[in-house]
Structure formats: C-alpha cells, structure tokens
Amino acid sequence: MFSHNLQEKELSTINISDMSLESCQAFLNYLYGIIRHEEFLIHRLALLRAADKYDISDLRDACHESLLEDIDTKNVLERLQYASLYQLMKLKMSCIRYLVKFGKIYEIRDDFNTFLHNADRDLIAEVFHEVLDAWKGF
Q1: Using an 8 Å Cβ cutoff, are 60 and 48 in contact?
Q2: Fewer CB within 10 A of the end CB, N or C, for the chain?
Q3: pLDDT-derived band of residue 138, with 50, 70 and 90 as boundaries?
Q4: Where does the UniProt annotation locate this protein (predicted)?
Q5: CA distance 135 to 21
Q6: What is the pLDDT of residues 12-22, one digit of tens each?
C-alpha cells in the first residue's frame, strides 16, 4: 500500500476498520513476535480473520490449533461457523463430533435452534449427516 500511489501512501496511514484497537494491537504484537499467550487467546478469532485477510498462514495455523483445544458448549457453534467459513476442516470435524458423538446438541437446544435458522445450509446438512450416521447404530 505504501509503495503504490494509494491513499495510504499519501496519508502515511492504514485504516483497519474491521478490527478493534485491541485486536489490531494483538495482530501487530504477533507480527513482531511479542504477543503474550493470554493476549493471543483473547483475540484468536479476530487474529484468524486477520490471518485469512492478509494471508498469514502461520497465524492461521496457530489460531486453528488453539481453537481445537477448548471446545465447549458455550463456543462450539461459533467455532463451527468459523471453521466452515475459513475452511478449517479439523476444527469443523471436532465441533461436529463434540455436538453429535458427545450428545451436546441436547444441552444447547435453544442455541442450536438459532444456529439452524442462521447457518449456511451446507454446514447444516453436514451436521445432520453426522447425526444420521450416529443414529444408524440404534
């Protein structure tokens, strides 16, 4: 941006409107190799978006691995949607397995119902395919 005749070069600034100031600071800290683990954990979803937007594969991989570590009923549906959006297959399958194989769909019925109304149809079909596979043995 600074090497071409763009607005950023003229103003010597870059406006990053899709990140909070704190997430942007975490992103810069990651790029400079000074991010603290707690800061990474707090901002990892925003960092995943930034990694995708700016094509930073090592940050994308770090976020992916980190998001696999603490899936629970409070975050599984959000992570499932992020996994689908950013094509994080390992995370997507872990979330689906958590919902289906561990029976967590029943614990989050209301949230799952909202998810069904808002999520991508292909993702919903994948979840139901796994549900049907799980029921095959009964």
Answers
A1: yes
A2: C
A3: low
A4: Endomembrane system
A5: 46
A6: 777 788 999 99
DSSP label at residue 19: S
Instruction: Tell me: pLDDT of 101 over 80.
Output: yes
Contact 63, 51 (CB under 8 A): yes
3-class SS letters over 78-90: HHHHHHHHCCCHH
The identity of residue 83, as a single letter, is: A
One-letter amino acid for residue 32 of the chain: Y
| Three-state secondary structure call for residue 103 | coil
Closest CA to 42 of 61, 22, 62, 21: 22
Please identify which residue in the block is written with the tokens 């990892």: 44
Please state the pTM of the whole predicted model: 0.85
